[in-house]
Amino acid sequence: MSEAVSENGLQGGGRARLWRARLAQRRARLRKPLPLVVEGRLTRLVGLTLEAVGCRAAVGERCLIRGAGEHMVEAEVVGFAGEKTYLMPTTDMRGLLPNAAVIPAGASAALLAGPALLGRVLDGAGRPLDGGPPLTGGQPLSLTPPPVNPLERAPIREPLDVGIRAINALLTIGRGQRLGLFAGSGVGKSVLLGMMTRYTEADVTVVGLVGERGREVKEFTDNILGRAGMSRAVVVATPADMPPLMRLHGAMLATSIAEYFRDQGLKVLLLMDSLTRFAQAQREIALAIGEPPATRGYPPSVFARLPQLVERAGNGPPGRGSITALYTVLTEGDDPQDPVADAARAILDGHIVLSRELADAGHYPAIDIESSVSRVMNDVTGDDQQALARRFKALYATYRANRDLFSVGAYRRGGDPVLDEAVDYHPRLTAFLQQGIQEKVTLAQSRQALGALFEDAAQDGGPAAARAAAQGSTRDGARSGAGA
Ligand SMILES: Nc1ncnc2c1ncn2[C@@H]1O[C@H](COP(=O)(O)OP(=O)(O)OP(=O)(O)O)[C@@H](O)[C@H]1O
Ligand SMILES: [Mg+2]
């Protein structure tokens, strides 16, 4: 490198000037270091993992790989071992050749968030999928922002109307809660998520469609959100045929967009279909770069990633915005012990379990009231509603526990008054739990219907125990507690 200032023939003050000039040069260079791009070489490609040597790029950085005919394949650094750098493609990999040049291209361009996001459909990298103009201007979004201090979060105190009677009355949700919809495939998660999207009041709705069918993206934007819904919604779609890294980024980007709107003081509804596909994308990546599998093929990093994603939703500081999040979770093979479902249940603030048995019987939404829990219900509802909900669940559980008696004809009225009461109530309880896809039931209507369920029964002169129920809630509570 040549020195711009020469020392030759200088003395005294001249020398001092020279040193000052040199110092200024060095300072300027330190402030703006020359970008050092060290190209690497592609040595191996197995499945979805690319291995390169000689490449100087940090984890999370983007690289361009020169394929046949100057076609560039984009990839991201996901790990390294010794001299080797592991990359995952974020675009189609066709056209790659051995020894292709791997050119570091710096950090991925951040999505610029602003009000212009509303009404848009994006992919996992924040590129428009709707044919609209590119997003310019706004605040750059990080996919991995620093976590919120848990002590600064406002507690969940306000009930949220989701428009579903069974949930509003028996599993009341709070604003800022993170809830999972758990079920095997085809039991009705997406339909219930769609209903809740349409009926829940929110300033902004952010939808992450991660690893599910491509067909469902258009269905969600056109049929579920519609033109009016889309005007205050952002959809991030990374369907099943996208590379795993894109699916992973899709879920993270949707969460980042929700955080952006929350920080503007807005009430955000974040919907993710599905959390399981997010976990599976991480599994694909981790296994491909050599992480050992632990539970059911899922490597440990999957169970670290899940809370990192889910913990980002929730309330902001008091007086600021909130993110209420709904995640669908696939219980593979209808196994409630599915490791992702198990991990999700432990980190979410509630789970709504859908039952295949109910769906098969045409009972929709197929919510299994006995297995579902909203962990904030007691904070957002009054004692009356809680007592009625406990009573409902106790009656329902008693009937379900004794189903075998009915099928073998062993049930005799008068043998057990608690069971007789459960039998009398059962048709009403079942009707209460069912709801048409196009039917919206508000929180107030749901509470009223829950109260009326028992009042009506008493007035009808129906079940003897129902008459007793109207006389005092203390006894109700005791009996419900025993039956639950
Ligand atoms: N509330 C409902 N009323 C009537 N039919 C329903 C209802 N919910 C679901 N279904 C039926 O069940 C089918 C599957 O539902 P959905 O797509 O929501 O399942 P899913 O749990 O999301 O499945 P997957 O895990 O495969 O995505 C629907 O196509 C519809 O026929
Ligand atoms: Mg679905």
How would you characterize this protein structure?
- With 484 residues, the chain is of the alpha/beta class.
- Helices cover 39% and strands 19% of the residues.
- The chain has 16 helices and 19 strands.
- It has helices spanning 13-31, 165-170, 189-199, 215-230, 244-263, 275-288, 300-310, 339-347, 356-360, 377-380, 383-401, 403-407, 417-433, 443-459, 464-469, 473-483; strands spanning 40-46, 49-53, 61-66, 72-81, 84-89, 101-107, 112-113, 121-122, 139-140, 159-160, 173-174, 178-183, 204-210, 233-238, 267-273, 314-315, 322-330, 350-353, 373-374.
- The strands form four sheets. Strands 8, 12, 13, 14, 15, 16, 17, 18 and 19 form a nine-stranded mixed β-sheet that branches. The chain has a six-stranded antiparallel barrel with strand order 1-2-5-4-3-6. It has a two-stranded antiparallel sheet with strand order 7-9.
- A hairpin with a 2-residue loop joins strand 4 (72-81) and strand 5 (84-89).
- The longest helix has 20 residues, at 244-263.
- The protein is elongated and about 115 Å long.
- Bound molecules: adenosine-5'-triphosphate and magnesium ion (MG).
- Residues 189-190, 212, 273 line the site of magnesium ion (MG).
Based on DSSP secondary structure assignment, what is the total number of beta strands?
19
Helix content: 25-40%
- What is the SS-derived class? alpha/beta
Ligand identities: adenosine-5'-triphosphate, magnesium ion
Q: Helical region count?
A: 16
Mean pLDDT comes to 86
